[in-house]
Design a protein that fits this description.
Layout (H helix, E strand, L loop, with lengths): L5 E6 L2 E6 L10 H13 L5 E6 L3 E3 L17 H18 L4 E5 L2 E3 L1 H8 L2 E5 L3 E3 L13 H9 L1 H10 L3 E2 H7 L4 E3 L4 H13 L3 H13 L5 H16 L2 H12 L9
Parallel strand pairs: 2-3, 3-5, 4-6, 5-7, 6-8, 7-10
Antiparallel strand pairs: 1-2, 8-9
Helix pairs in contact: 4-5, 8-9
C-alpha cells in the first residue's frame, strides 16, 4: 500500500520503516500513528524491523500542531497517550522480531522514547537524545519514565528528565542508554550489517531471547530458572536447533526456517 507519512520496504527478511515528515522532524500526527501501525502489520513476516527517520532527524515526538489547541484551551493528553503512544510502545516491546532503531539525528520527547523502546539502538555520532518534557510541565511518556532509570540509573534518569539537557549519542552509548554509537557515514553500513546478521539467525530463538530478557524483572530467580528450563526444552526440539548443530559440526552455513 502507499503511505503519506512513512515509507515501508521489505527485502531479505528485513522490514525498513522510515518516519517521513522531515519538514517537521518526523513528529507524529494521528495519521502517522495509524500508518505506522499498518506498516508493523505488514512487517509481520519479516525477521527484523528497522525503524528510522527521514532527513536530519529521527523523531521529534508529538506534533503539537496536530492537536490544534488554541491558547487558553485545554486538551486531554491522556487520551492521546492512551489512544496512540501506549499501544505503539507496547507493540514494539512485544513483537517477536528484533526491532532496531536507526537514530540518524535528533530524537526528542516521545521520539527519544520510541527509540528506547526498540530492542537495539544504533545512533549516528551527531545524533542526540532529549527528554524535552519538563519545559512543557509534562513527564517522560511513551515508556520514558520506565526505560530511563532501568537503562542508566535513577540519578542520570532524573538529570535527563528534569533538565531536558541533550545527551549526545557517544555519551548515550557510554551510559548504556543505547547499543552503539558510530560515525555518521558508517551508520547505514552498521545497521545493514546488524539487520542482516539478525535476519540470518533462528527467529524462534531471537523471539525467546527478547521475551525473556524484557520480562525478567517480573520473576524471582527460581521462577527464572524454571522458565529457562522450559524454554530450552521447547527450543531444543525445534528444527532450527537441529540445523544449527548440524551446520556447526559440518562446518557450513546454517539455513534457519523458523520451525
Amino acid at each position: 500500500m502507499t503511505y503519506d507519512t512513512i515509507s515501508f520496504a521489505l527485502a531479505d527478511n528485513v522490514a525498513r520503516i522510515t518516519l517521513n515528515r522531515p519538514d517537521r522532524l518526523n513528529s507524529f500526527t494521528r495519521a502517522m500513528h495509524a500508518e505506522l501501525a499498518q506498516a508493523l502489520d505488514a512487517a509481520a513476516d519479516a525477521r527484523v524491523i528497522v525503524l528510522t527517520g527521514a532527513g536530519r532527524g529521527f523523531c521529534a515526538g508529538q506534533d503539537l500542531n496536530d492537536r490544534a489547541v488554541a491558547p487558553g484551551q485545554a486538551v486531554d493528553l491522556g487520551e492521546t497517550v492512551e489512544a496512540s503512544w501506549n499501544p505503539l510502545i507496547r507493540r514494539l516491546a512485544t513483537m517477536p522480531q528484533p526491532v532496531i532503531a536507526r537514530v540518524n539525528g535528533v530524537a526528542a520527547g516521545a521520539g527519544a522514547n520510541i527509540a528506547l523502546a526498540c530492542d537495539l539502538v544504533v545512533a549516528a555520532r551527531s545524533a542526540k537524545f532529549i527528554q524535552s518534557f519538563s519545559a512543557l510541565g509534562l513527564i517522560p511518556d511513551s515508556g520514558g519514565s520506565w526505560h530511563l532509570p532501568r537503562l542508566v540509573g535513577q540519578a542520570r534518569a532524573l538529570g535527563l528528565a528534569l533538565t531536558g539537557e541533550p545527551l549526545m549519542a557517544d555519551k548515550a552509548a557510554d551510559w548504556g542508554l543505547i547499543w552503539k554509537c558510530v560515525d555518521d557515514d558508517a551508520l547505514d553500513a552498521e545497521v545493514d550489517a546488524l539487520a542482516a546478521r539478525l535476519a540470518g539467525l533462528p527467529p524462534l530463538g531471537l523471539a525467546a531471547i527478547k521475551s525473556i530478557v524484557r520480562t525478567t524483572g517480573t520473576r524471582t530467580l527460581d521462577q527464572e530458572l524454571d522458565l529457562q528450563r522450559d524454554e530450552m526444552r521447547r527450543l531444543g526440539f525445534t528444527a532450527d536447533y537441529r540445523e544449527g548443530v548440524a551446520a556447526f559440526l559440518e562446518k557450513r552455513p546454517a539455513t534457519f526456517t523458523g520451525n
